[in-house]
Design goal:
By secondary structure, this protein is mainly alpha-helical. It has one domain: Up-down Bundle (Four Helix Bundle (Hemerythrin (Met), subunit A)). 65% of the residues lie in helices and 4% in strands. A two-stranded antiparallel sheet has the order 1-2.
Length: 178
C-alpha cells in the first residue's frame, strides 16, 4: 500500500517538478526579454513625449543630439539582438538624425520589433558561446546580453536627462507622479 501511495504521489509531483524546471530553464534569457520590453516601453515613450523641436537638442557640443541617440539606439538594437540571437539583422536604409520625429520613432520601434522576434527563441543553453562583438572582438553570449541591457539603460538615462533639461518629465518619472 505504501508503495502504491508513493508511486501515486511521485506521479502527481512529476508534472509540477517538470513545469517548474522548464520555467527555471531560461532565467537569463527571460530577464533579457523582460528588459527589452521595459526598455522599448520607456525609450519609445521618451521619443514620443519629446517635442520635435527638441530632437536637435544636445547639452554640450560634444554630446549626441536627442535624434542622434534614437538613430544610435536603433542601430545598436539591430546589432546587439542579431549578435545575441544569431539571426541576421534587417537591411535598412539609413535614417539621418535630422529626419522627421515620426520617422525616427518608427525606426526605433522597428528595431525593437526585430529584437522581440530575434530574442524570442534565445535560451540559456549556450551562454558561454563566443559571438562577434564590435569589430573583430568576441564576447560570450551572456556578455552580449548584459551589454544590450546596459545600452538600453544608459540611453534611457541619457534621454531622461535631456528631457529634464528641457522641462519635460521622463516616462518613468511620470508613472510615479500619477
Amino acid at each position: 500500500m505504501k508503495t502504491l501511495l508513493g508511486t501515486i504521489a511521485l506521479a502527481l509531483c512529476c508534472p509540477i517538478i517538470t513545469a517548474a524546471a522548464q520555467d527555471a530553464a531560461t532565467p537569463v534569457s527571460d530577464a533579457l526579454r523582460a528588459n527589452e520590453k521595459r526598455a522599448e516601453r520607456n525609450l519609445v515613450a521618451a521619443a514620443e513625449d519629446t517635442p520635435a523641436d527638441k530632437y536637435g537638442f544636445k547639452p554640450t557640443p560634444a554630446q549626441l543630439s536627442f535624434g542622434e541617440v534614437l538613430v544610435h539606439l536603433a542601430g545598436g538594437n539591430d546589432f546587439l539582438c542579431s549578435t545575441i540571437s544569431g539571426m541576421a539583422a534587417p537591411k535598412r536604409a539609413k535614417v539621418p538624425a535630422t529626419e522627421a520625429k515620426q520617422k525616427l520613432i518608427d525606426r526605433l520601434k522597428e528595431s525593437f520589433q526585430f529584437c522581440e522576434t530575434a530574442l524570442a527563441k534565445v535560451d540559456d543553453s549556450d551562454l558561454s558561446a563566443q559571438v562577434p562583438f564590435f569589430g573583430d572582438g568576441k564576447v560570450s553570449r551572456a556578455a552580449a546580453m548584459m551589454a544590450a541591457t546596459e545600452d538600453w539603460a544608459d540611453h534611457y538615462s541619457q534621454l531622461a536627462i535631456y528631457m529634464r533639461l528641457n522641462g519635460l518629465l521622463p516616462p518613468t518619472a511620470k508613472r510615479r507622479a500619477e
